[in-house]
C-alpha cells in the first residue's frame, strides 16, 4: 500500500508529519514524500525542511494521496503540473485526502466538486468557490475523499482512515504506539471553544495566518 | 528566543514536528534544527528526512532545547559529542525538554538525576537506571526540565511550555491557530484506556517498537 504525501514550498510541517506517523505504521504501508523536484522542501517559516524523495513522475499510482496545507497553498490554486498529477493519481487512488488548506488545492484541481469537505476554520468557507460544500467538522469523509480541519487534525483524520482500511484494532494499536491520548492544557482549539477575543484576533489576521508574511 | 531541536539518526518525526509547530509560533521564537552534521537526518523508517540546518558547534546558547525520541535513542545513551553538547547548552538554557524516549538521552547525559520525568509508556521505567523518578503523566515539569510521554504528547508539552513562557493568552492563540481540538476516533491512546489485549501485544513487541527493526 503506497502512501504519497505531497510537498510544496511553504507547506505546514505538522499537516504532513502528523498523518505520516500514523499511516507509516499501517501494515504494508510504504510512504513516499513527493514533490515537483526531489530534495529539501521548506515550510512557511523557512526554518524547517522535509526531503522529497520522489518526483511527481516517479509516483504514478499511490493507494493513498495526502495533500497538506500551509501558506504555500495560495501558489497552488492554478492549473499546472501539481494539479495534473493530483487528477492523474486520483483516477486510481483508494483514498484522496487533505489536511488544513490542502483541501483548497484538491478543490482547485477539480477533485471535490459537488462534495462535502472541510479545511482550516479560517479557510473552510473558501471551498464554495469550487462548488464544494464546506463542513465545519474535524474530519469529513465523502466517498474516498477524506479532508481534515486545521493542522493538528490530520492525526485524527489519519487514525480514522487507518480504521477504515485495516479495522479498529490496528488503528487502536497505532494510537497506543504514538500514545495519542491528548490532554491539551487549554480548551482553545476551535473557534467554538476559544475565548471570543482570541477568535476575533485570529480572524482579523486571517490573511496573514493563511497566506504567510508575504500575503 | 532561540529554540534548538536536536536531530539524530532514527528519531521519530512527530516527536520533533509536533512541538515545532507550537514553539515556532512563539513571538520572537527562532527555531533551529541541529545535529552533529548539517543536512538530511533520517527517521527510524528511513522514508522521512528532516534537514538539520546547524551543527552542534553552531548552536551554543539556545533558550529552549528539545530532544525528540525514537528508536535511534538507543545509540545515544553513551557519552559523546551529543551528551557534551546537551550538558553545555543546559548550563544556560531556560528550558531543557524532551518528547518520548528523548528523556532517556537527557537522563543518560546526567541532566535529570534526582528529578521526576516521563517518557513513552513502554520506556518510562527505564529512567530509574539513571536515578530519575519515572512519572506516568503526559507532561512532567520539574524545574526547567519538561518531559513528555510518547510521540504525540509533544504537542501538549509544547503548549504547556508556551503558556509558561508567554502566558495563557498566547498559548491559547497558538492552539487555535493549529486547530488543536483533538477528537481521536478511539479511546486507545494510553495503556489505561486501550483494550487489554492490544496493550499486551505492544508490551510483547516493546523492544521492537522502542528500538526498531534492527533491535
TrEMBL record, chains A, B:
UniProt keyword terms in alphabetical order: Glutamine amidotransferase, Transferase
Name the record gives this protein: Glutamine amidotransferase
Biological process, per Gene Ontology: regulation of DNA-templated transcription
Database matches in PANTHER family: ARAC-FAMILY TRANSCRIPTIONAL REGULATOR, DJ-1_PFPI DOMAIN-CONTAINING PROTEIN
Listed InterPro entries: Class_I_gatase-like, DJ-1/PfpI, INH-QAR
GO molecular function: transferase activity
Biological source species: Enemella evansiae
Lineage of source species: Bacteria, Bacillati, Actinomycetota, Actinomycetes, Propionibacteriales
Domain DJ-1/PfpI: 2-161
Family matches, as Pfam families: DJ-1_PfpI (PF01965)
Amino acid at each position: 500500500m503506497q502512501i504519497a504525501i505531497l510537498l510544496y514550498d511553504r507547506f505546514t510541517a505538522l499537516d504532513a508529519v502528523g498523518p505520516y506517523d500514523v499511516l507509516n505504521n499501517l501494515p504494508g504501508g510504504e510512504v513516499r514524500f513527493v514533490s515537483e523536484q526531489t530534495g529539501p522542501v521548506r515550510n512557511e517559516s523557512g526554518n524547517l525542511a522535509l526531503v522529497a524523495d520522489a518526483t511527481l513522475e516517479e509516483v504514478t499510482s499511490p493507494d493513498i494521496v495526502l495533500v497538506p496545507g500551509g501558506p504555500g497553498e495560495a501558489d497552488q490554486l492554478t492549473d499546472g503540473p501539481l494539479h495534473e498529477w493530483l487528477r492523474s493519481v486520483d483516477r486510481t487512488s483508494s483514498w484522496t485526502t487533505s489536511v488544513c488548506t490542502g483541501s483548497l488545492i484538491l478543490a482547485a484541481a477539480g477533485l471535490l466538486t459537488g462534495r462535502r469537505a472541510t479545511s482550516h476554520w479560517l479557510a473552510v468557507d473558501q471551498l464554495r468557490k469550487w462548488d464544494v460544500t464546506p463542513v465545519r467538522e474535524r474530519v469529513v469523509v465523502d466517498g474516498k475523499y477524506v479532508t481534515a480541519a486545521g493542522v493538528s487534525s490530520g492525526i485524527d483524520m489519519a487514525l480514522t482512515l487507518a480504521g477504515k482500511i485495516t479495522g479498529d484494532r490496528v488503528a487502536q494499536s497505532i494510537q497506543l504506539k504514538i500514545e495519542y491520548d491528548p490532554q491539551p492544557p487549554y480548551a482553545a482549539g476551535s473557534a467554538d471553544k476559544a475565548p471570543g477575543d482570541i477568535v476575533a484576533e485570529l480572524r482579523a489576521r486571517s490573511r496573514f495566518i493563511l497566506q504567510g508574511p508575504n500575503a
